[in-house]
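Hi L.,

You mentioned the student needs an example of a multi-chain input paired with its predicted structure. This one should do, with 393 residues in total across all chains.
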Amino acid sequence: MRAHDRNNHGRTRARAGDHRAGAASADGAAEGVVPDAGAAPAEVVVPTLGRCPPPLDVPQDIKPLDATWRRWIADNALRRCSPESMLATVTAAGIDPAQASGFIGALAHDPAFGAAERLRDRHERFARTMAHVQSLRESAPGYDHVEKRSRVSRDEFIERYVRGCRPVVLTDLARDWPAMQRWNFAEFKRRFGALTVQVQAGRESDADFEINKVRHRRETNFAAFVDRILTSGHNNDEYLTANNELLRRPEFAGLLDEVGALPDFCDAAAFKHSAFLWVGPAGTRTPLHHDTLMLLHTQIVGRKRWRFVSPLSGPSLYNDFDVYSPVDFENLDLQRFPAAAKVKVLDVVVEPGETIFLPLAWWHQVSSLDKCISLSFTNIDVPNKFDFGHGAT
Ligand SMILES: O=C(O)CCC(=O)C(=O)O
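Structure written out for the whole complex:
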């Protein structure tokens, strides 16, 4: 499947060009501006202003209203922020207030802005519908925890988890895999230490390391990488992720033979092309995103914490770019992301030997509690290719 060829389970897009903070500004960074009270429907996102464009080069000069600020105003007017609050922010940034106020006043009569309002209203109706369906789902007993199950049959797996679109941890899927005995850091170093592998590096210094993953690719000696994992403390700086395509290299092909029998809801013939290795220290973090296909992820060594959010809660996740959300449920910033407060997060720790099923389009963020070796695979024996388009605004 084409999706299998796409690295990191379909997360192909890296933001190109301008990627300073705030370039995609509609993520609701509150800047102290008051939303227009009473105008917003109560059940949808409370409007907050997006992040401002960068400060002017010569702040003391009165500057004309440029295209970036026009877009900022249009974005925030669509959020129903009040003209006064927008004007105050724009003026404080050194922009000509007369020009800004003329632009704000003219928006109401601008047919292009009218079209944007209609799209916004349609989006809000859709978001409300999804929120209502989600609240029904959350009212089901047991919704708030991820089941841990063994001996799940193909029929039940497909019916309850794939079609039912709910995550599950399968405790016995990898029980008899030789990999469970053979894969560990010392053994990896002994067998593959001389080889060069591609990792994601320098992540700690970039808040958007996942979106910018192309920039973080580095080649490194595998033994040296393993040594750094073993000696470094808790950190997120370096991580061998699904991007590396390591299992497609003949030198590593033996690893695939050490994965034992797969359950009958997997397509064994497709396994070789759809398995991905993950190796990293305790402390790696994969930020909130959704994949474009379903997958299974087995912990061989170490534990990972997965946090899941239903796709129906997507409208509360400030998703402005592709499949990524800037919300971090480990450290929730309610000032910037007030709508995320109501989102129900399912939290589960996956232990060595356990396999998590990631249902379609579920948002998830993952952190390694220990030094980890994991294997993900996407060859679930059901149609598993979906077109999510390009979601960036
Ligand atoms: O294990 C991880 O760090 C992230 C896994 C993940 O997010 C994925 O496979 O989509």
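You could point out the following to them. The first strand starts at residue 147 and ends at 149. The pocket of 2-oxoglutaric acid is lined by residues 9, 278, 284, 286, 291, 295, 297, 304, 364, 366, 374, 376 (CB under 6 Å).

Best wishes,
N.
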